[in-house]
Write a structure and sequence with these properties.
Elements: H1 2-14, H2 27-38, E1 44-45, H3 50-57, E2 70-72, H4 77-89, E3 98-101, E4 118-121, E5 128-131, E6 136-139, H5 145-152, E7 157-158, H6 169-174, H7 182-185, E8 192-198, E9 204-208, H8 213-219, E10 228-235, E11 237-238, E12 242-250, H9 254-267, E13 274-283, E14 288-297, H10 309-312, E15 318-319, E16 322-324, H11 326-332, E17 340-349, H12 352-373, E18 379-387, H13 389-397, E19 412-421, H14 424-447, E20 451-452, H15 472-485, H16 490-494, E21 506-512, E22 517-523, H17 543-557, H18 561-569, E23 587-588
Parallel strand pairs: 2-4, 3-4, 21-23
Antiparallel strand pairs: 1-2, 5-6, 6-10, 7-11, 8-9, 8-10, 12-14, 12-15, 12-16, 13-14, 13-18, 17-19, 17-20, 18-19, 21-22
The structure holds 2-acetamido-2-deoxy-beta-D-glucopyranose (2 copies).
Keywords: FAD, Flavoprotein, Membrane, Oxidoreductase, Signal, Transmembrane, Transmembrane helix
GO molecular function, one term: oxidoreductase activity
Pfam families: FAD_binding_4
Length: 590
């Protein structure tokens, strides 16, 4: 029996989880909740309405286009408050889970949408206004960065925001936010001076350096763990056009690009007006990998710094380098829609051999996928972005964020590895393949002592654990603030999407049967272990199960860190299948 269960466990653990359908309840039940919500608000979309189809199709990635029981579209902060209060207290909604969508750019299923549940679509909360005197811009979560710059550019100011016009404001800002201006000013979240948000019980609160300052800090990188942000006050600043654009190159220039980017990353603290990223990308139109370089000088000066010398010496095939508005440059960096997208990210030291190995593995991956999938219509990106120490310096000067980058002593590099494919079936296979390549990259980086713990939330796959990578201290801060401002755990349980602090680090998988229990503690990508709650699902009232429950319950309650560490560090390599995504609780029962 036990052996059978292990086999079962292997099968269950291999199934990717949190595809947005975790216990969201039956469709029928939730449509009663939708009806209850519709008596509060006029704008509620059922699956049969054309607007529902339009809003669903407006998610950037097909992977995120799920089927909620209804989509609710608040028009004011007050509406959001009413929706949250109803979801929490109305009897018809007691088992209903919900998701929150701002721009809807995060690609993985369940990050911003929910099958059979209620999706709160903040699309109408999309305003941008500027207080000319204080230069504070108020931007709402449902706006997209292209729309924000369209308002601000003509006023001669801008904000530290996204680099692709179609990315939404809300998720980007609570997840960090890398910008053309980050070397100059820090992550976008660091430039927020006040958040307005609705908490789980429907209270509308503000968070700033003066008011609810713990929440203010936690919202900068702590993501969707506290409430629904309805407005961001951002410190804008005078800005004119930038010099920037995209240059393409043949892949034969690989080594020159690696050398150039190593130098660029090493020198970025001395040239904070610059911004650059480089990526190797398989493009179906070309049928091969090409290299694209994206360069900006935020002062608008052409090739202003010797920092560009190395890369400008590489002969490109095409170039769009020009002086243009912030909006114009972000329009150019839009990514194609109509695909199922899988993104993974990791961070490594600025070591040329690690870049070279990643580029090599990316090429291998492209070849393997070409022959294995039989579908030439796919896109990959193997993208490098500098994360210099100056980012954290700006953050600290502005009150600090949750990303934990102050722990890094040197400039490092973030990798975004992604693939876009055409069908859900291909997505499952591509995801498994990508995961294998990510593991190989990690192994290589580790072998050169070059793997950096940091995982950037906005690029992370649902199976990654970015909050854990922000360090024990920040994990605890986020946890405390979440408990304080969301004492009912609405944003942990009722809104399960995105990266949740209650799921950080440890997973306990319990398999039970009449004659045995298998308790597996799996730790994923967590170098320091936080005293995390153990997620233990036990349904069988057998004596042994109760004992296991008690033991683990005590461990949780008294937070015996050392025992947890022991359990976790032992890394129960019962079999290689124990690569379970975090947030994935597998429950098997006889
Ligand atoms: C805001 O949303 C409304 C409704 O979807 C849309 O008509 C309008 O164009 C949007 N405004 C901006 C600035 O994107
Ligand atoms: C770039 O192209 C020019 C003209 O075609 C050529 O003379 C030069 O050697 C090339 N430089 C590099 C680095 O390949």
């Amino acid at each position: 029996m036990c052996r059978l269960l292990f086999v079962l466990a292997a099968a269950a653990a291999a199934v990717p989880c949190s595809r947005g359908d975790s216990g969201a309840g039956l469709k029928g039940e939730n449509s009663a909740c939708c009806s209850a919500l519709s008596s509060d608000l006029p704008s509620i979309l059922s699956p049969s309405s054309p607007q529902y189809t339009i809003r669903t199709a407006s998610y950037w990635s097909r992977s995120a286009q799920l089927s909620p029981a209804c989509i609710i579209q608040p028009r004011t902060t007050q509406d959001v408050s009413v929706v949250l209060a109803t979801l929490r207290t109305h009897p018809a909604c007691s088992d209903t889970q919900f998701a929150v969508r701002s721009g809807g750019h995060m690609s993985w299923a369940g990050a911003n949408n929910i099958d059979n549940g209620v999706t709160i679509d903040l699309g109408y909360l999309n305003g941008t206004t500027l207080d000319v005197k204080t230069r504070v811009a108020r931007v709402q979560p449902g706006a997209r960065w292209g729309g924000v710059y369209a308002v601000l550019d003509p006023l001669g100011v801008t904000v530290v925001g996204g680099r692709a016009a179609g990315v939404g404001v809300g998720g980007f800002l609570v997840g960090g936010g890398n910008s053309f201006y980050s070397a100059q000013q820090g992550f976008a979240c660091d430039t927020v001076v006040e958040f307005e948000l609705v908490l789980g019980r429907g209270e509308i609160v503000k968070a700033s350096a003066q008011e609810n300052s713990d929440l203010f800090q936690a919202l900068k990188g702590g993501s969707s763990n506290f409430g629904v942000v309805t407005s961001f006050a951002m410190q804008a600043f005078p800005a004119g056009p930038l010099w920037g654009g995209v240059v393409s190159y043949p892949k034969s220039t690989t080594q020159q690009h690696i050398d150039a980017y190593v130098s660029w990353t090493a020198g970025l603290n001395d040239y904070p007006y610059g911004s650059s990223l480089v990526f190797w990308t398989y493009l179906p139109a070309v049928g091969d990998i090409v290299i694209l370089g994206v360069y900006e000088d935020t002062t608008g000066t052409v090739a202003a710094s010797p920092a560009f010398d190395k890369v400008m010496a590489i002969n490109g095939t095409t170039s769009t380098m020009r002086v243009d508005s912030h909006k114009g440059l972000t329009d150019e960096l839009e990514q194609p829609t109509g695909y199922h997208d899988i993104w993974f990210t990791l961070t490594f030291k600025n070591d040329p051999l690690i870049y070279a190995h990643i580029v090599f593995l990316h090429e291998q991956m492209v070849q393997a996928w070409k022959s294995e999938s039989g579908d030439p219509d796919f896109i990959t990106q193997c993208m490098f972005q500098s994360i210099p120490t100056i980012f954290a310096k700006h953050s600290i000067a502005k009150g600090g964020n949750m990303l934990g980058l102050h722990r890094l002593a040197e400039n490092v590099v973030m990798l975004l590895l992604n693939i876009a494919v055409k069908t859900p079936e291909l997505e499952v296979r591509a995801s498994a393949m990508l995961r294998r390549y990510v593991e190989r990259i990690k192994e290589f980086a580790e072998s050169r002592d070059g793997l950096v713990e940091w995982v950037y939330l906005n690029y992370a796959d649902g199976s990654q654990d970015p909050l854990a990578s922000y360090g024990l201290e920040n994990v605890e801060k986020i946890r405390k603030v979440a408990e304080k401002y969301d004492p009912d755990g609405v944003f942990q349980k009722k809104a399960p999407g995105g990266f949740k602090i209650s799921k950080v680090g440890t997973i306990v998988v319990v398999f039970t049967a009449a004659d045995c229990i298998v308790v597996v503690v799996v730790q994923v990508e967590l170098l320091v272990v936080a005293p995390v709650p153990i997620l233990l699902l036990v349904r069988v009232p057998s004596k042994l199960v109760i004992v296991a429950h008690l033991i683990l319950g005590v461990v949780v309650r008294i937070k015996v860190l050392s025992i947890l560490v022991l359990l976790v560090r032992v890394k129960l390599l019962v079999a290689s299948f124990l690569v379970v995504p975090p947030a994935c609780i597998v429950f098997a029962d006889d």
